[in-house]
Structure formats: structure tokens, C-alpha cells
Fold:
Amino acid sequence: MTSRTGFFVLSGVLLLVALLCVGEGVQLVATGKPLGIGIGICAFVIPVIGVWFLRQTVRFGRASEQLARELEAEGGLPVDELKRTSGGRIDRASADAVFARRQAEAEDAPGDWRVWFRLAVAYADAGDTPRARKTMQHAIKLHSTEPARSNA
Structure:
């Protein structure tokens, strides 16, 4: 199963569970008992948080895909130059070398979203997903504040 398929399956499950929670919340509030009303209100809040998280994830995915398409059109997507083991895993020393190079590029051009995008990919290749996500969010922020280019 691809990650995109998995995402859609889990999103559907989340929405289904949200609907069930809201239904149960309505029934609990309808009891008229203070404890039932309290739990029912909580049953309304939990789906809101889940749907908010889903929305943020979709926005992040779309924005990072947009950056990837733009970088690909410019010919600036990072090339997979990592060495792999016979089992297909990324060689740690290779990932560290590429990461060091990408980090130096980001330090040299801190306002360029392109180098931050490539650094995020290097973080992901090194297995540091939280930093990869944070770095990609920084690249998205830099891209959104970049002045529009003229086609002249």
C-alpha cells in the first residue's frame, strides 16, 4: 500500500469515527444528566481536533507537493545520490555526508526555500522525520513570503 493510499484510508476511518463520536455525543447530551452532558461535549470536541489535524496534514502535503513541482520545473530537485545496502536500506555514512552538504547550503543561503526543501529531504533520508517536517514547513513559509517572479 502506498503512503497516499494509506493516508486516504486512514482519513476515511478518521471521518467515520468522527461521525460516530458526534452521534454518541448527541445521545449522551440527550440524557440530560450532568455526567452524560459533560462526556457528550467531549465527544464533540475530539472529532474537531481530529479533523483540524487532518486539515493541517492535507495543507502541508499540498504545499510540499507544490514546492516539489516548482523545484522539478527549475531542475533543482535533489538527485538520489545515496549509497544503499544490499537490502536496499540507505547507508548511514552516505546519508550523513549528503546531510552535511545540504546543511552547509542552508547556512549559506538562509532565505532560499530551495535549499531548505533539499535539507528537509536530507533529514528524511537520514531518518529524522520530525526535523524533516519542521524544515519543510520552514521552506513552505519562505516560499509563501518570496516575492512573485515576473516572466519578463
